[in-house]
Design brief:
This protein is mainly alpha-helical and 152 residues long. The protein has six helices and two strands; from the N terminus they run H-H-E-E-H-H-H-H.
Length: 152
């Protein structure tokens, strides 16, 4: 990429402003890209506030690289992304998680950071595959918990 972008912090969710800063694009550009690239489907909470996940931030950086640095058109970048397949989809993209009284997004991020530290104690650096599987299971559990928070 042309300019050096900041590293992506270990958080569960990012606001549109944070993603703009991390990827070097304005929020209105991100909203436009959501219409053009089906892979970008941030979660929306009350008031249509967007929350992007780590894989979406990586996808935005890839789109930015294709458009700004490599000179692709929107349709060319779309085709290029489809050639390499879609990133893992967590099943919650586009779901309205209106959990005003439930735990906040920041709480989820803090809990996930604590669990990652615990993983290191459990697994160590020896079994990367186990760490990846454990992270996937944890992500699914957080998603289930957020869905259950909406049930009366």
């Amino acid at each position: 990429m042309g300019n050096t972008l900041p590293s992506i912090p270990a958080k569960r969710y990012f606001t549109i402003g944070e993603v703009g800063d991390l990827c070097g694009v304005k929020p209105h550009v991100l909203r436009y890209w959501e219409q053009e690239f089906t892979q970008l489907r941030p979660m929306k909470r009350r008031g249509n506030r967007r929350y992007y996940q780590h894989h979406e931030v990586l996808m935005i950086r890839r789109i930015r690289d294709l458009l700004y640095d490599q000179g692709f058109t929107i349709s060319g970048a779309r085709n290029k992304l489809q050639e390499h397949g879609r990133p893992p989809h967590d099943g919650l993209a586009g779901v309205d998680l209106d959990v005003a009284d439930a735990q906040d997004v920041d709480t989820f991020a803090a809990e996930e950071a604590d669990l990652k530290a615990f993983d290191h104690l459990l697994i160590g650096d020896d079994d990367v595959g186990a760490a990846v599987r454990l992270a996937q299971v944890r992500r699914e559990l957080f998603e289930i918990r957020s869905l259950l928070a909406d049930i009366p």
